[in-house]
Amino acid sequence: MTSPGARADGPSRRISLVITDEHGEVLRETRAAIFLDRDGTLIKDVGYISRPDDVVLMPGAAGALRSAHNRQRPVVIVTNQSGIARGKFAEADYLAVRKRIAELLAESAAYIDAEYVCPHHPDFTGPCDCRKPGVLLYETAIREHGLDGARSAFIGDRWRDIAPAAHFGGRGIMVPSESTPADEIARARAEMEVAETLQAAFDAALAP
Ligand SMILES: [Mg+2]
Ligand SMILES: [Zn+2]
Asked: Where are the domains of the chain?
């Protein structure tokens, strides 16, 4: 039995869904999340970034993450890193960049709850189900963290970042970057949502 709003107390009642069995025992509680692209959305996209020293947070990134956490909303990074498949950098480089991002965010009291990566590219490693706009990484995150895709927001600077929102019944919000093609922005305006800044996208996602 599904009983939305069964958790009637506490600040997280707006974002939690409690699934109970016939005796009212809690089986699982799901949470709305924010799925976030990394390059060009959370950090500046310098193209196949592989050196920690090249990491620059997007303006307002830490504040946007804090605003989500103030609302008990987990933030999950889903990122395509085809540079690994292309041999442009190693998995160790990706992990070093990831660590640097965490350090920079921590300086502003912000953090990422979880991160999922596709290291493939069809031209180099064959087809895979995890490369965005594929939904495998989102499905994995939803299962591992008890998330509710239909009440989640999908934020990024490319159409492939927000397209998965349609699959899960969630909300897709594009924040265009310098590398967003004009036709993708037009499609996002027509079919989903567009925000001018990361904070504006988070504000929209967090609106009651
Ligand atoms: Mg991007
Ligand atoms: Zn993949």
From this structure: 18-206
**Is 54 a residue of the active site?**
no
Mean pLDDT of 49-75: 97
The answer to whether 148 is a known catalytic residue is: no
Tokens 């300086």 belong to residue: 107
> What are 78's two structure tokens?
């889903």
**Are 128 and 84 a contacting pair, CB within 8 Å?**
no
% of the chain residues with pLDDT over 90 = 85
Mind giving me the DSSP string for 99-142?
HHHHHHHHHTT---SEEEEE---HHHH---SSSTT--HHHHHHH
Signed CA dihedral, 157, 202, 69, 178: sign only: positive
CA angle (193 as vertex; 191, 194 as ends), nearest 5: 125
User: Any idea which of 10-14, 64-68, 103-107, 190-194 has the lowest mean pLDDT?
Assistant: 10-14
Q: How far is the CA of 148 from the centre of ligand 1 (A)?
A: 23
d(CA 135, CA 4): 25
- The fold adopted by the segment(s) 18-206 is Rossmann fold (3.40.50)
In the reported structure, the alpha carbon of residue 156 is separated from the centroid of ligand 1 by a whole-number distance in angstroms of 6
| CA 41 to centroid of ligand 1, rounded, Å | 6
- CA atoms of 33 and 115, how far apart (whole Å): 13
Ligand lying closest to the C-alpha of residue 82? 2
